[in-house]
Amino acid sequence: MSDRTKKLGAYDKEFVWHPFTQMKEYEEKSPVVIEGGEGAYLIDSEGNKYIDGVSSLWVNIHGHKVPEIDNAIKDQVDKLSHSTLLGVTNPPAAELAKDLIEICPEGLKKVFYSGDGASAVEVALKMAFQYWKQKDKPEKVKFVCLGNGYHGDTLGAVSVGGIDLFHSTFKPLLFESFQAPSYYCYRCPLNKEYPSCDIACATELDKILSEHNDEIAAVILEPYVQAAGGMIVSPEGYLKKVRESCDKYDVLLILDEVATGFGRTGKMFACEHEDVTPDMLVLGKGLTGGYLPLSATITTQEVYDAFLGDYEEFKTFFHGHSYAGNPVSCAASMGNLKAFENYNTLHELQDKVQFLEDELKEFGGLKHVGDVRNKGAMVGIELVQDKETKEPYAPELKMGWKVADLAMEDGVLLRPLGNVVVLMPPVGIPMEDLKKLVHVTYSSIKKATEGS
Ligand code: PMP
């Protein structure tokens, strides 16, 4: 190991507190210092190359060093790096909003910018709350969310989260929400089987709305894939049913596409698979192609109009983040959209998804793979101690991490979710690299779970 890597590792261990990381364990290892990127690869300070198997935590879309995005950022920095969006605008913020509305599901009209996914979720929740207040239904103050749902780590987002491991500690700080069952077919919370269940999880959600709609502002969920919950994939028809229930009971639908947006599921947005338009669409992560922080809460005209009034009526949405609509981030995002066009990304993706689905069938044959699921290029491979009984591996075995550690030795960077091995490569990953990613993952799972 070079002296430089040693020095960086020492600084890191002494001064950095890493997110979602048990620092006691981290301090015992030599940190990997990622300092370069090229296409689907990351390069560490020792010159080792790794396939970016989870898109640098689900953000990267076209790979690293994409000319369209690199140049957009450089050009923008030469003009203006930041100016507020409170009361004034800037060219990339205005142009990007127009471009986003053009690609969003029909009916979405207004873009409210923030910085991170969680902030954009907070915006959606507060907007929904204030919307009903201004529609003279101030008693509609609650939210319906899903078990296994995840919307970020700020307190509002955690209040509509459904992952006990991350969320239960903070319970005393949270507001109460209704929780509908997760659409987790492999471990159905209702003990039913698809398709004979007739999507009973959506029926349960409908029941909550039928009983409590007078106090419910909105339903919030991740369409098609509960990502942090373990890459759980919804059955087809679920989303449409939820939209119908929301319409029937006059409840807003917030779709959090922070993880699923920008091609991940095979279409630009996951809600397009079922022709569903939400009242609010939340975007983040891949919005800038995985380069810079930027998020957006995109609403219908109907929602927007409820906030119009004379100044002294105080219908203004009193919420805003310092870097909302940052011109460099917005320019990166326009570069991202340009790259989608230039590389025909969504079209090219279809063959890769087909390849993935064919290969994933093989994974199902492994002794300790209980479930293999995907929507587009979002993949969850659930490892189990016992396939018959679906008994999970005990957490202390850290089986997901064993797989990731082995994959790293073979040049693939993964980050599991408990016992679920996650594959979420850049949407634009070249076929060759995708093949390597799949093959290394297969052999790492086999080795970790079967010993060879
Ligand atoms: N919503 C979803 C569906 C997510 O997956 C995430 C992050 N993993 C967030 C919101 C929060 O985004 P951020 O980390 O940018 O705050």
Any descriptors?
alpha/beta; 2 domains; globular; four-stranded mixed β-sheet; Aspartate Aminotransferase, domain 2; 452 residues; binds 4'-deoxy-4'-aminopyridoxal-5'-phosphate; Aspartate Aminotransferase, domain 1
Quick summary of this structure?
37% of the residues lie in helices and 17% in strands. By secondary structure, it is of the alpha/beta class.
Could you explain the architecture of this structure?
The chain has about 450 residues and is α/β, with parallel strands linked by helices. The chain folds into two domains: about 30-60 and about 345-450, Alpha-Beta Complex (Aspartate Aminotransferase, domain 1), CATH 3.90.1150.10; about 70-340, Type I PLP-dependent aspartate aminotransferase-like (Major domain) (Aspartate Aminotransferase, domain 2). The chain is about 35% helix and about 15% strand. The protein contains 15 helices and 17 strands. The chain has helices spanning about 5-15, 25, 55-60, 65-80, 90-105, 115-135, 155-160, 165, 200-210, 240-250, 300-305, 325-340, 345-365, 400-410, 430-450; strands at about 35-40, 40-45, 50, 110-115, 140-145, 180, 215-220, 225, 230-235, 250-255, 280-285, 295-300, 370-375, 380-385, 390, 410-415, 420-425. It has a seven-stranded mixed sheet, sandwiched between helices. The protein has a four-stranded mixed sheet with strand order 1-2-3-16. Strands 13, 14, 15 and 17 form a four-stranded antiparallel sheet that branches. A hairpin with a 4-residue loop joins strand 14 (about 380-385) and strand 15 (about 390).
